Structures are given as structure tokens and as C-alpha cells.
């Protein structure tokens, strides 16, 4: 059967695209296919987060929104002639270098940002400056494809707790706040991670950015609307938490929890979103038929002329882009193979004035270091009966699944009854936290990280050091040390930890000695 008989729709679609756009779009599609194929694992992980993590569910709509934004510009884009631009390859290479840094250090947010930026840079490279200028907002909106926001949870928990206690007192309910715990006559409430409101905030920021662009022309109004889009969900989440406490005082905790899940979980966010749009409605100053871009103005602008001298052959640039992407993958493979040599076995030493003892906790606790190459756990007791728990973890390298101090790892393991209560200043640049379980059991935990000659608690510093190791093939092991003690009627946790530290050698040297690095 003749081809033209079985594929009229395909022929009609091809004819609807201006001839000057057909080859550039084919090259761009090919470039994106290469980026998807070479980095399929990263894209699969991003999509899994969109689907499985409620904080990022809204991102499933972002590709559709970007497509709609481009469609709104289609008529004006037809006035432009896409031309491939050599300097765009620098942007592609820079974006993939960002991906490389994230990949070799196990920093998913950085690697995901690099991949999205590479897709954006491919547009600039293969369609040119004028088209990129016309597509500036849709391209920038693509940054919302990066799943980010969970890092804000601790801060939002504290803000929500402060708003909640203020409203609770204002409503006449006696309450005491301790970190993220609020004690009321009806019971003890926790502003948990799920109650931080981060999913409200990140989704509202995506919505606010879209509405600011589509519905406003005035920059002051856009800025004011975005500020509202950030503040409103934070305040609303505090009201949500207070509402649960308020209802619990008369109806009981079980009823309040069910009401929170049904009403606040399914309806409240929609009401907050409607309130945001209602607040901005009267100030919308873009007419429905106003074009988003002026294709003729962009086509005749003079400022890109000097840069367009570097325009070139699109197929050559497509080949160069694919080569850069392949080089990034190969470099990553080589760098990820760099690991420090570790001894076959290690052991915690004897400490003067302290003896090894069995772990006996008022409530079970154990720090998590699931990806460590060596992991040691012990308890020490002195002649006064004071007890310290020691967790020592040694890593040959840092990456996904074996990262010191990663979320859910360390002194506050995920999926247990232990919760962060307050900071507890640790000596020697460590990080300290007071933890609580079931509202009654408390302990203090100090955490130190060591890499090369550096000792501290900054995960960013550790990631940068690991990036340097792998980029230049100079591996150093990483050590994580956690010291923890219970607060009981007969033991002060901080005094106990201080006494233990005084009994050891200088901490950095002690950590190195356990790993056999001295």
C-alpha cells in the first residue's frame, strides 16, 4: 500500500511545521533522546520521586505546563529562524559537569539540576539565541522539574510549631512547647516532618511563578504575588496544625487526626490555592489576548547579531553535544571507581577510666550507618555508672547508599520513635542534637565527620572534599563518629559526654587511630 495512503496525519503534521524549523527540531529531539538514553538511571530516579513522594507529585504537571507555554508562543515563534550556536556547547558541557559533580558525590539534587540544565542548554545550542530568548520563561520554568524542597523540612517544622503555639495560646488553650512537641490538656502533639507544609510550599511556588508570568505584566505586582505565594502556605499550615489541636480538645485526638487527614489533606490545600488566586485576581493586568512574546521584535533585534557570528552547522553541533554527554558518562564511571584502601578489620580501643559494657537503654536507640564499609558499636561505663554509646563508621568513598550523615542515617534514624527535640552544642566543630522518644525518653548525641585532615559536621564540606578526591583520583576515607548518652534521673547526658571526651586522646587522632590511619 502506498505510504501516502496510510500516513496522511503524519504528512499533515509535518506540513504544519515551517520548513525552516523541521531540521532544527529533529536535531533537538535527537539531542534530548541522547540525553535521556545516556542518563536514563537519573531520569528514572527523578520520575520515581515525582510519582512516589507526595512533595513532588505536582511536578508531573510541569512538562504539560511547559508544553502549553510553548504552544501559546507558537505563532510568534514561527516568525523566527532557528540557527545552531556554537557557544551553547559550553553551556551543555558546564551543565553536565554539574551533573558529574553531583553523581560522583552522591548529591542527587545537584546531578538532577545538571541534567535539566543540559536539556535547556541543548535548546540554546541547536535553536540559537533568538529562539532561546523567545522561550526564556518556558525554559526557566523547567527548573521546577528538579525535585527539591525536602531540605526545608527542619526549618518549616520549627516555623509551624511557633505559629501553632501562638494560635493555641491565643485561643485560650494552655500549652507548653518543647522543640517540635506541644503539650496540651488533650495530649502531646508533634509537628512531624509530614506536618511541615513543605509540599504546600513547593507546589505553591510553582503555581505562583506560573500565575505571575501569565496573569501579570507589572514586575512589582509579580514580586508581590510571589511573596504572597511563599508566605500564605506557611501561615496556612500553621493554622492547619492549630486546627487539629483545637478540635482535639473537645473531640479527642483520634477524631482530630481523622479530620486532619480528610479535610486538611484533601480540601485545605485547594482552599489555600483558591485564596491565593482570589487575592491576586483584582490585580491581574495582562489581557487574555496579549501575546507573551513579539516574534517580529525578537527577529529584528540587533543585539544578538554580534553573537550570531558564531552560528554554525547544526548536525556538527549535535554530534559535538553527543560526544560531550558521552565524555561526561565515561568520566563519571572512572571517577566512581576511586575508593580509599581500608584495613580488613578495625576495633575500638580501650579507654582509661572506662570499661566496655553491654548496651542497656531505657528506650531502644541505635544510630544508623547502613552504607559503611566498617561499622563498630559499643557502650562504655565509668566507675560512677555513667554510660556512653559509641558508633564508629568508616567509608572507603561517599555515594548514594553509603553516605555519612545522609537523610535517615546517623544519630536520628528514619522510621523510629526518636525525634529531634533541640540543638545541643557539640565541641570540636561537631553537631549536637537532643532527641526524644514517646515524649519521655531523652538523649543527647554528638556527631563528627572526618575526611583527610578535616574534622567537623558540615555535609557540604564533606561532599566538596569527596568531589575533589574523585575528580583528581586522590581517595581519602571518611569517618563518622557518634557519641550519645541518655538523660536520666541519675545521669546528665552532656556532663557524661564531656567526661568521656576528656578521657580520650585528641578526637581527630583518636578517630584516625581506630581506622589505622596514624
Can you walk me through this structure?
Helices cover 52% and strands 14% of the residues. By secondary structure, the chain is an alpha+beta fold. The strands form 2 sheets. Strands 4, 5, 6, 7, 8, 9, 10 and 11 form an 8-stranded antiparallel beta sheet that branches.
Secondary-structure blueprint:
Blueprint: H1 3-6, H2 8-16, H3 19-38, H4 40-52, H5 62-72, H6 74-77, H7 88-105, H8 108-127, H9 129-134, H10 136-141, H11 153-170, E1 176-178, E2 181-184, E3 187-190, H12 198-215, H13 219-251, H14 253-281, H15 295-300, H16 314-336, E4 354-357, E5 374-382, E6 387-395, E7 418-423, E8 431-437, E9 441-451, E10 454-456, H17 459-471, E11 478-487, H18 493-503, H19 507-514
Antiparallel strand pairs: 1-2, 2-3, 4-5, 5-6, 6-11, 7-8, 8-9, 9-10, 9-11
Helix pairs in contact: 3-8, 3-16, 7-8, 7-16, 7-17, 11-13, 12-13, 13-14
From the structure above, extract its key features.
alpha+beta; eight-stranded antiparallel β-sheet; three-stranded antiparallel β-sheet; 19 helices; 52% helix; 14% strand
Order of helix and strand elements from N to C terminus? HHHHHHHHHHHEEEHHHHHEEEEEEEHEHH
What is the radius of gyration? 28 Å
Instruction: Assign a percent range to the helix content.
Output: 40-55%
| Global structural class | alpha+beta
Strand content: 5-15%
Amino acid at each position: 500500500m502506498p505510504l501516502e495512503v496510510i500516513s496522511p496525519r503524519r504528512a499533515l503534521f509535518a506540513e504544519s511545521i515551517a520548513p525552516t524549523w523541521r531540521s532544527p527540531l529533529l536535531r533537538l529531539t535527537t539531542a534530548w533522546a541522547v540525553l535521556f538514553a545516556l542518563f536514563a538511571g537519573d531520569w528514572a530516579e527523578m520520575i520515581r520521586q515525582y510519582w512516589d513522594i507526595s512533595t513532588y507529585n505536582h511536578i508531573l504537571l510541569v512538562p504539560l505546563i511547559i508544553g502549553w507555554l510553548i504552544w501559546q508562543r507558537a505563532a510568534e515563534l514561527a516568525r523566527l529562524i532557528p540557527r545552531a550556536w556554537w557557544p551553547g556547547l559550553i553551556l551543555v558541557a558546564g551543565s553536565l559537569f554539574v551533573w558529574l559533580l553531583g553523581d560522583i558525590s552522591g548529591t542527587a539534587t545537584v546531578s538532577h539540576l545538571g541534567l535539566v540544565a543540559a536539556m535547556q542548554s541543548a535548546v540554546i545550542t541547536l535553536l540559537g539565541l533568538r529562539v532561546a530568548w523567545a522561550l526564556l520563561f518556558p525554559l526557566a520554568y523547567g527548573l521546577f522539574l528538579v525535585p527539591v524542597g525536602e531540605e526545608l523540612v527542619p526549618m518549616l517544622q520549627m516555623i509551624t510549631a511557633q505559629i501553632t503555639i501562638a494560635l493555641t495560646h491565643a485561643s485560650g488553650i494552655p500549652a507548653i512547647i518543647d522543640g517540635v512537641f506541644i503539650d496540651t490538656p488533650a495530649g502531646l502533639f508533634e509537628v512531624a516532618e509530614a506536618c511541615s507544609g513543605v509540599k504546600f510550599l513547593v507546589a505553591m511556588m510553582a503555581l505562583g511563578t506560573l500565575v505571575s508570568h501569565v496573569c501579570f505584566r507589572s514586575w512589582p505586582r509579580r514580586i508581590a504575588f510571589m511573596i504572597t505565594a511563599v508566605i500564605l502556605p506557611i501561615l496556612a499550615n500553621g493554622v492547619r496544625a492549630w486546627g487539629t489541636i483545637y478540635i482535639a480538645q473537645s473531640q479527642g485526638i483520634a477524631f482530630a487526626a481523622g479530620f486532619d487527614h480528610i479535610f486538611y489533606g484533601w480540601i485545605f490545600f485547594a482552599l489555600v490555592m483558591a485564596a491565593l488566586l482570589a487575592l491576586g485576581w483584582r490585580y491581574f493586568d495582562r489581557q487574555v489576548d496579549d501575546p507573551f512574546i513579539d516574534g517580529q521584535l525578537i527577529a529584528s533585534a540587533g543585539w544578538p547579531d554580534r553573537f550570531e557570528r558564531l552560528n554554525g552547522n547544526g548536525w556538527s553541533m549535535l554530534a559535538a553535544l553527543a560526544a560531550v554527554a558521552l565524555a561526561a558518562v565515561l568520566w563519571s564511571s572512572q571517577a566512581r571507581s576511586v575508593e580509599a584502601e581500608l584495613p580488613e578489620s578495625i576495633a575500638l580501643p580501650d579507654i582509661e577510666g572506662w570499661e566496655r559494657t553491654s548496651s542497656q537503654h531505657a528506650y531502644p536507640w541505635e544510630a544508623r550507618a547502613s552504607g559503611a564499609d566498617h561499622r563498630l558499636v559499643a557502650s562504655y561505663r565509668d566507675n560512677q555508672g555513667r554510660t556512653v554509646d559509641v558508633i564508629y563508621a568508616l567509608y572507603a568513598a561517599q555515594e548514594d547508599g553509603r553516605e555519612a550523615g545522609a537523610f535517615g542515617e546517623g544519630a536520628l534514624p528514619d522510621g523510629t520513635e526518636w525525634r529531634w527535640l533541640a540543638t545541643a552544642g557539640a565541641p570540636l566543630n561537631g553537631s549536637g542534637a537532643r532527641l526524644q522518644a514517646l515524649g519521655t525518653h531523652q538523649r543527647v548525641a554528638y556527631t563528627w565527620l572526618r575526611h583527610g585532615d578535616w574534622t567537623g559536621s558540615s555535609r557540604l564540606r564533606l561532599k566538596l572534599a569527596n568531589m575533589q578526591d574523585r575528580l583528581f583520583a586522590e581517595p581519602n576515607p571518611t569517618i563518622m563518629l557518634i557519641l550519645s548518652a541518655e538523660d536520666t534521673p541519675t545521669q546528665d547526658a552532656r556532663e557524661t559526654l564531656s567526661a568521656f571526651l576528656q578521657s580520650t586522646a585528641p578526637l581527630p587522632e583518636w578517630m584516625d587511630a581506630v581506622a589505622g590511619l596514624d
